[in-house]
Specification:
alpha/beta; Rossmann fold; 2 domains; 6-stranded parallel sheet
């Protein structure tokens, strides 16, 4: 019988650690923090942009340098020949010049050199999203390896292809997503693939071909001490808030802008704050729909500023065509904000049944989105939508307040980083036990 040590030495890998764009940086920060609080030693190996970590308490950061070809303010830069010091550097440049995205592959080639020989100084390697060939080589050498796939990027590729337009743009999308085939192959070789929802689990099994018994759901969460209702903070009439970390079709921002235009025909005071940068597609939609002055963008805000927004919003919108989880929805619910979300991907799992913590609408339906937003805004006024009392509410704000309370309760019961870390450790121990049982190491 194998007796597992109380404290594990964890190598947590991520090819990008940006805490403000996408969920990878958030996952790194809070999972490493909670693993440290549980007494485990965590070393985060990250490529640029670097993550924001709560270092100490058993957590440290090792920076995995790359050419950083997509950094601001000069993305898609061509490096000087003197910068090319390894085969990974050469492949990174050539792939970028060919229109592909090299970082998951080249990061996975660089990081094993920093880990040391097996058994080395780590009990388990946890790859957060790269699924590069270098990670597969670690598994073949006997390292206990766990991978996290928040959702399969085959979904992103399908949505982007559907919205590509001309043939040349379609070819460009295919080149960009060239790394997906590699990721699918590597995921099939790992002892365990963690994911964040049952919707994502189903898609990983069907689209990536991973054996069902090796795909385990461990939901992520939010910091409920940070994302919380602010006493005395009043909600601003007509204020809609959404988060758009990237200007991609899958986030559904264009449909929300169309919904806002419809909503403003009846509620001209309605306005939208987008947490994110104005990008070409969204800016063009704002101009096309005549929403100048009704839409503002807030890039790079702090957690405290985001909490203030969620606690000031009359409603938070999540218009995504698909989500593997949705941290913005959970963060908003933790702040007692009423939510309107689509039924895309895992969103019903996250927000619950329609009318409990959120109103659910079909994806890519601006009319339904406008109607649901209007229903929440009308509830503050004690008015009706479509000739009926909104949410059967007799008092102004009853629907919004009820959904807000239910949302916070749902988050506290299901979606905390403490619960996530405990579930991840269970899988670490299982994979370590399996690798020892098989005689590796």
């Amino acid at each position: 019988m194998n007796v597992q040590p109380e404290s594990l030495r964890v190598a947590l890998l991520a090819y990008r650690g940006n805490p403000r764009v996408g969920g990878q940086g958030v996952y790194l920060r809070y999972l490493s923090r909670e693993l440290g609080r549980l007494g485990h030693q965590v070393t985060v190996f990250s490529g640029p942009p670097w993550p924001l970590l709560d270092e100490g308490n058993g957590t440290r950061l090792v920076k995995v340098d790359s050419l950083d070809l997509y950094r601001e303010p000069d993305p898609f830069r061509v490096p000087k020949a003197s910068e090319l010091r390894s085969w990974a550097d050469v492949v990174e440049v050539l792939t970028m010049l060919a229109g592909g995205f090299p970082e998951p592959r080249t990061f996975s080639w660089r990081v094993p050199k920093l880990l040391g020989p097996y058994p080395g100084g780590f009990d388990v390697v946890h790859d957060n999203g790269s699924f590069g060939t270098g990670v597969a080589r670690l598994a073949r050498k006997g390292w206990p390896v766990v991978g996290t796939c928040h959702h399969p990027l085959t979904v992103d590729r399908l949505v982007d292809l559907a919205n590509a337009g001309p043939r040349w743009k379609e070819l460009s999308v295919k080149r960009w997503y060239g790394f997906v085939r590699m990721q699918n192959s590597v995921a099939r070789r790992l002892a365990r693939v963690l994911t964040v929802s049952y919707s994502s689990r189903r898609d990983i099994i069907e689209q990536m071909g991973v054996a069902p018994q090796r795909v385990v759901v461990v939901p992520i969460g939010t910091d409920t001490e940070v994302f919380r209702p602010l006493p005395g903070r009043k909600r601003v009439p007509g204020l809609v808030v959404t988060t758009a970390s990237a200007d991609v079709a899958m986030k559904g921002l264009t449909y929300l802008l169309e919904a806002l235009a419809k909503l403003r025909t009846e509620r001209p005071h309605a306005r939208l704050v987008v947490v994110g940068e104005p990008r070409p597609a969204s800016s063009a939609a704002v101009a096309r729909l005549g929403l100048e002055g009704a839409v503002s963008f807030r890039p790079g805000i702090s957690d405290a500023e985001l909490v203030d927004l969620y606690c000031s919003a009359s409603v938070v919108a999540v218009p995504s065509l698909y989500e593997g989880f949705s941290l913005p929805a959970v963060e908003a619910m933790a702040c007692c904000a009423p939510v309107v979300a689509t039924s895309g991907g895992a969103l019903p799992e996250v927000v619950g049944r329609d009318g409990e913590a959120a109103l659910l609408v079909p994806p890519a339906d601006p009319g339904a989105l406008a109607h649901a937003l209007g229903a929440v805004l009308a509830s503050y006024e004690g008015t009706t939508e479509g000739g009926r009392a909104v949410g059967h509410a007799s008092a102004p704000g009853a629907l919004a307040e009820r959904m807000g309370r239910a949302g916070r309760e749902r988050v506290l019961g299901r979606f905390t980083w403490q619960r996530c870390a405990a579930g991840v450790v269970d899988q670490y121990r299982a994979v370590i036990s399996e690798s020892q049982w098989c005689g590796r190491g």
